[in-house]
Amino acid sequence: MPPPSDSSLPRLAPGCRWGTQGEEKVVLFPEGMIRVQGTGQTILELCDGQRTVQEIVGVLLGRYSGADPAKIREDVSSFLEALQQKRIVDY
Amino acid sequence: MDATIPNPLALIAEITHRCPLHCVYCSNPLQMVGAKAELSTEEWIRVFQEAGRLGILHLHLTGGEPAARTDLQELIAAARAAGLYSNLITSGLGVSEARLSGLVDAGLDHIQLSFQDSRDEPARWIAGAKGHGYKIALAESIRQLPVAFTVNLVVHRQNLDHIEEMIEFIEQLQPERVEIAHAQYYGWALKNRDTLIPTREQLDNCMRVVEAAQQRLSGRMRIDCVVPDYYARYPKACMGGWGRRLLLIDPSGQVLPCHAAGVIPDMKFDNVREHSLEWIWRESGAFQRFRGEQWMPEPCRSCDRRTEDFGGCRCQAFLLTGNANATDPVCSLAPDHQLVEIAQAASNAGGAQVSWSYRANPE
Q: What ipTM does the predicted assembly reach?
C-alpha cells in the first residue's frame, strides 16, 4: 500500500474500535490491543473517515503552534502507514 | 485472594460442543459435554460481566460450533455491554445472512471463518460433512458488513501440497487476515497424528510459499503462520504461559487453563456455577498447578528461555511422556525429544496409511 495522500480519509478498519483498560483508552483489534497515548491518540481520534489527511494535519498545526508543517505531515503519514500494515487503519 | 497475579487478558468460551462438522483435527476433548449440561444464557451473561470487571478485553466465542446455540446474538450483545471485544470462531454453518447481520448489529467485532481446503471434495473429506460452498457464499456476506474478517485454514500433510492454491483461494474471499494453522496434536488430532503430520519437505515449501505471499499481499491481507511445534527447536509458549493470560470455560462452566488441560490426571477444575471467575483465576488449584516456575524440572528450571516459553505445553508433555511435569518433548533440549523425532521420521518415510477417526458429537 502507498502512503496516504492529502485527500485520503483515514479511519479505524472494520472490527477495530476504541475501548478502555482501567482508566486508559486503548484500541481493540482482532489479535489484541494497543495503547495509544499523546500525539498518536490525538491523530487516531481525528481519523473518523470524514476528515482528510490534510485536514488532520491542519487540526494538529492549530494545536501545536510553532510545529513544522512538513514534519507533522510526515509523522501523520508514517503513523497511519504503520497502522495500516497492521490492518488497524484504512485510508 | 492473591492480588499479585496479573489479570487475564482473554476468555475463550466454548459455549457448546455440538457441531455439524466432524473435523479430524478438532481440538475438542474426546469426552465432550452434552447439550443438557451446557450453561444457560443467564449464566453465560453473568460470566461475561465478571470477565469485564476482571479486566478481560477479548472474548473468543467458540465450540463446537457456537452458532449451534440459538441465543448467540443475545450472548454477543451481553459481551458488548460488558465491555468485551467479541470474536466468533465459526464454521459458518448455521449462520444465515440474516442471522449474521443480527450478530454484527448486536456488537460482534470479529469473525474467524474456518476453511478446510480450497477444494470442495477434500474439504468434505476432512470435515466429514458438506459446507464448503456455503462458506464461500457466507464470506461474501461477511465482507459487506462492518466487522473484522479472518479466515482460518488448518494445514497438514493431506493438503500442504497445494498450499499456494489455498492462499490464492483465500485471497479471493478478501479477509483482512488469514491464519494458517498447522494442526496441533491434541484431542482428535492426536488420534489422527500419523496421517496429519507433515514431512519436512512440505513444511519447508509451505514456509517459502507463505513468505512470498506475505510480501505480495502486504497491507492487503495479513498472513499469520508459525512453524508447527513438532518441527521447531523450542516449544511454543502455550497459552502465553499457564494461568498467565488466558482462561477457557467449557460448555458446562468448568474453567480450564487451556483447551486440553482435561487430559492431565488429578486436575480438579472449578466451575463458574460455584465460584466467581476472579476467585477461580487467582485460587483454583488447576490454575496454580503450573503457574510460575516452581514446578519446572531441569533443563527448564535453569534455562534462559523459561521466561519466553514457560516450559512449553503441559498437556503435550503429558500426552507424549505420561508426565505432565516433564519438559515439553518438542523442545530440542528435552530428555524425551526422541519421541517427537520418531513421529517426524515416520512422516518423512511416508509410511502412514490414510485412515481417519472423525470427531464424534456429544450426546
A: 0.85
